[in-house]
Design a protein that fits this description.
The protein has about 190 residues and is mainly α. It contains 8 helices and no strands. Helix 2 runs antiparallel to helix 3, helix 3 packs antiparallel against helix 4 and helix 6 (about 120-145) packs antiparallel against helix 7.
């Protein structure tokens, strides 16, 4: 089946766990929210696979890290591990992007090539910008969870990181427009 037929599944897999985590935190605290995050991530990733017969790389990495760090949080009753999860994921994604650039194969071209058609310079620049953005966001997560309350960290994780992502993507539109490959007129 085409990806467009199941775009709602991608959004559900991407955003469902975050929404469930936030609601569970507000109603039952960080440990309950962590259990809910693990369960919802496993269920929605499985549902996504059943409906589309594929799992995208980023949700798969997220699933593994959620299970590991969420599991450690619950097992050791230490919220430090779940707070480190965004830092680990963002740093890992940045490392993959930088590694791809170093070998001359920008991973964003592979991941987003069906949605965007950019020249090679555009893919390199966009990949580098995403890598740097992920590193900055990972650093902000570290600062927030280490210096602020759990309640403020959860709000930052849900709303702050989301807002930063949206702002970052909007600021990349001029780069995308400059490097977009023009389609020949028919």
């Amino acid at each position: 089946m085409k990806d467009t037929q199941h775009s709602w599944v991608k959004h559900l897999v991407d955003w469902g766990p975050l929404v469930a985590f936030f609601i569970a935190f507000k109603t039952g605290g960080i440990m309950q929210a962590t259990v809910v995050l693990i369960v919802v991530t496993v269920v929605l990733t499985t549902l996504g696979y059943v409906l589309t017969r594929r799992i995208q790389p980023m949700p798969l990495v997220t699933l593994v890290i959620v299970c590991i760090f969420g599991g450690l949080t619950i097992w050791l009753q230490d919220e430090t591990f779940i707070k480190m999860k965004p830092t680990i994921i963002l740093t890992l994604f940045a490392a993959i992007l930088i590694g791809g650039l170093m070998i001359g194969k920008p991973p964003l071209k592979f991941l987003m090539g069906s949605a965007l058609e950019l020249d090679d310079a555009g893919w390199r620049k966009l990949t580098l910008r995403f890598a740097l953005f992920f590193l900055v966001t990972a650093s902000l997560n570290e600062i927030v969870w280490r210096t602020q309350s759990t309640d403020l960290w959860v709000n930052f994780k849900v709303f702050g990181i989301l807002g930063l992502n949206l702002l970052f993507m909007v600021t990349q539109i001029p780069l995308i427009m400059r490097h977009q490959i023009k389609q020949p007129s028919e």
